[in-house]
Design brief:
Oligomer: single chain
Largest sheet: 8 strands, antiparallel
Strand content: 25-35%
Number of helices: 6
Number of strands: 36
Mean pLDDT: 90
Length: 528
């Protein structure tokens, strides 16, 4: 599935690919109105304003949704564009939450602005959306961002997006009828500052950071938007593109665009500036001119991606490989080993630093960042609720102290958040060490914080043997205090008991508990 929505230069909200999916006959259908809780953990005192804008899928009409989930189509509109009515919903203050509702059969965006309402305009054809990378845009000095979604009979697709800019960090969640919650989009500690400071400090990229006159950093523009505004070299990626393209004059590129169809393959060779693809029968199926930097940033232009089963999938794969810097060196695409991404020079610094500062490594930093499932998307075919969490602008994950793994002397495995699902009450487990953020912990102020800013916690504040060790929102209680002693004991001082691997189980998925300190291998830990 491609990115749910793209920003259009003016006019209407597009219908995402997800809207075309039809549910299996026996699949459960979510409620007519899906409650979506917007939580404000920014640490800022600004007033928050919410907007739910998009398209009613049954009619194709563009409009907005109020807090209760009722849809109203836009009307009027002029050339030049006229101001749209104020359809803002009052959002939560810092530490609070506000619930809005998605009507089933709707696809669009949830905008959230801090400190000031957004300014929207109407033409006879639809809505003019904010475009703060454009000179003179009325929203240029407003701090805002958006999530994108489709909710229909096949379920919910909800993603955070950095395709156009990185501004207000936010996580997205969905909970199904079984009570299982999926979450993505969380930053590591000080992740927003890390992104901003890295971009500022990279030669040629400093102008892509936009700061308001009061000193507030409002956003970092994506390379395509920045280059279009003259803030980044329009030929920045050209030398790498040429090198990667020319590599296939003497060897073959194999594209396997569908993970569930490994026998569907296309083979590319370059002649001059044109890369031509054939199928397994040797028939020519697609050709592409060597793309410009702009075409790669936008996955468009010389890399057109029609919604078909051949040209589009090949183009999406090429674009992802060029953004990630793996084309030319990895000859079967898509490459799905994130360790190989962004190693080229010049590289997509924007995508690289955003992914590096996501707790689970996932983001939507360019239009086809979903190739290989590296996008910050939650999806469920049987949703019962969803959430958007506006994340801390600084701190939030334990400060700047280095994150470490906690390794058991019993089995040399790591304390792990199951499935990288950073939700409250996630029971911590042991798992083979793999270097992911699910296994990174930061010691600060007597707490152990995960890479999404939650704390290692004793369930219900229990001090008893067998109390579960879990992940939970940091709250400053004794249940979240842990000390790693010089002897390797990980002690909860409130209980005066040790973090223990249940039943001395050496296997993956073994769970953690508190138990009387006994000096045994299943209670001994070291930093890694």
């Amino acid at each position: 599935m491609r990115k749910l929505l793209r920003t259009l230069a003016a006019l209407a909200v597009a219908v995402p690919i997800a809207a075309a999916v039809q549910p299996p006959a026996a699949q459960a259908v979510g409620p007519d109105l899906l409650p979506v809780t917007v939580t404000n953990n920014t640490g800022r005192g600004d007033a928050v304003y919410l907007y739910v804008l998009g398209v009613q899928l049954s009619s194709g009409r563009l409009g907005y949704v109020n807090q209760g989930g009722a849809f109203t189509a836009w009307s009027g509109g002029q050339i030049p564009p006229s101001p749209a009515p104020d359809v803002s919903i009052g959002g939560p203050g810092n530490g609070g939450s506000t619930t809005i509702n998605f009507p089933r059969g709707f696809s669009g965006r949830v905008y959230f602005s801090l400190g000031e309402k957004l300014k929207f305009y109407l033409t006879p054809d639809g809505l003019v959306q904010p475009a703060p990378w454009a000179a003179g845009d009325a929203n240029q000095n407003i701090l805002f961002d958006w999530s994108e979604f489709t909710y229909n009979d096949a379920g919910l697709w909800l993603n955070s997006s950095q395709v156009d800019m990185f501004a207000v960090p936010h996580a997205v969640t969905v909970t199904n009828s079984a009570g299982v919650t999926k979450r993505t989009g969380d930053l590591v500690a000080n992740g927003r500052d890390n992104v901003i400071n890295t971009i500022r400090g990279t030669s040629g990229w400093a102008n892509t950071v936009y700061t308001r006159s009061d000193g507030t950093v409002l956003r970092v523009l994506s390379p395509g938007k920045a280059a279009g505004a003259g803030l980044l070299s329009s030929t920045y990626l050209d030398s790498y593109i040429s090198s990667a393209w020319n590599a296939y004059t003497g060897k073959t590129l194999t594209v396997v665009p569908f993970a569930d169809q490994p026998n569907t393959k296309y083979f590319g060779r370059t002649s001059g500036n044109v890369m031509t693809f054939t199928n397994t029968s040797g028939a020519q199926v697609a050709s592409f001119n060597k793309p410009s930097s702009a075409s790669v940033w936008g996955c468009a232009g010389d890399l057109p991606a029609p919604n078909d089963q051949v040209v589009g999938p090949i183009s999406r794969t090429l674009c992802a490989a060029l953004n990630r810097g793996t084309l030319g060196t990895i000859d079967t695409q898509p490459s799905t080993n994130a360790a190989d991404f962004y190693q080229n020079n010049p590289t997509n610094v924007y995508a690289k630093v955003i992914h590096a500062n996501m707790a689970d490594g996932k983001a939507y930093a360019f239009p086809f960042d979903d190739v290989g499932n590296f996008e910050s998307l939650v999806n469920d075919g049987d949703p019962r609720s969803a959430g958007i969490v506006l994340s801390p602008f600084s701190g939030g994950g334990g400060g700047t102290t280095t994150a470490v793994s906690l390794i058991s002397s019993l089995n040399n495995k790591c304390i792990d958040v199951p499935n990288s699902n950073f939700v409250d009450w996630a029971r911590l487990q042991m798992y083979t060490c793999n270097g992911t953020n699910a296994q990174k912990w930061t010691f600060t102020g007597g707490t152990l914080t995960s890479q999404n800013g939650k704390c290692m916690d004793v369930a219900n504040g229990s001090t008893a043997n067998g109390a579960a060790v879990q992940l939970y929102t940091c709250n400053g209680t004794g249940a979240q205090q842990f000390v790693l002693s010089g002897a390797g004991d990980l002690v909860n001082p409130q209980a005066n008991r040790c973090v223990d691997i249940v039943d001395v189980n050496p296997d993956d998925h073994a769970q953690l508990q508190l138990w009387d300190c006994a000096g045994t291998a299943n209670q001994k830990w070291r930093k890694g």
